[in-house]
Amino acid sequence: MRLRTLLGDHPGTSALKNGSIRSDLVEFDFAQYSPTNKGFKPMVREGAFDVSEMAIVTYLMAKSFGKPMVLLPDVVLARFQHGHALYNAKARKLGPCDLNGKRVGIRSFTTTTGAWLRGILANDYGVDLDSIDWVTFEDAHVAEFVDTTKRAGAGKQIIQMLIDGELDAVLGEKSDHPDLQPLFADVAAEEKAWFEKHGVVPINHIVVVSQTMADNHPDAVREVHRLLTEAAAASPAAPRFSREEMQHSLQLIIDYSAQQKLIPRAYAVDELFDDVTRALR
Prior knowledge:
By secondary structure, the protein is α/β, with parallel strands linked by helices. The chain is 35% helix and 19% strand. It contains ten helices and eleven strands. The chain has helices at residues 14-17, 40-46, 56-64, 112-125, 158-163, 187-198, 211-216, 218-233, 243-259, 275-280; strands at residues 2-6, 27-30, 51-55, 69-78, 85-88, 103-106, 133-136, 150-151, 169-171, 180-182, 203-210. Strands 8-7-6-9-5-10 form a six-stranded mixed beta sheet. A five-stranded mixed beta sheet has the order 2-1-3-11-4, with helices on both faces.
């Protein structure tokens, strides 16, 4: 069975993409998108793939609008988020507690990194997210989501706007520009403290399959999971999550997404899976 597949180049996917791990049951026809997240919109809006990497917040939002996708318990990208927030140190000193009432840029309000960072700012630093003047540059992957943020002017670039003083801070970005500094002054210490508090790494990208594949080819779904598991085991750099760690990381981003009104309610983690994929956990 040939599967239209979107998977980025990650430690846990390389053995599948280079063909060193194969299957007698399924074959992957890999689509080429650079960066990989450019393929999330066609998956959500058109069902472009049978198997797809997917930002977890995009999946949560897609689920809330009944998009025909099913989650697999296979994480391909997980990372701490604190290093992906910047401010212009030349303009002023700014820390996470100083963001109330500020003008903050983000590529799209619905990015997973943005949702994690806003959750951290609100829950760990007491930031009033509603007081912030959010400026965005792209629409959501899920077309039905109503974005009420302000859109940057045509041709505007997020990092240049920060350098020029048109934004006070940005989320979801890194830069080596000498004027730009991390919003969290000691990123390593912040990440360590967050991990000590929560005991998990934030999940960014996970894998989904189409509802049609889940309904009609459950054996192929199980095989895809087996292959992803084997490929992840082949790389020491691939994300590692126990069932409990995955449960906790997923519940955190569900709760953050509900707080931020990206989804209408906080799902139970089990709701994200169907009968076939739930058993794979």
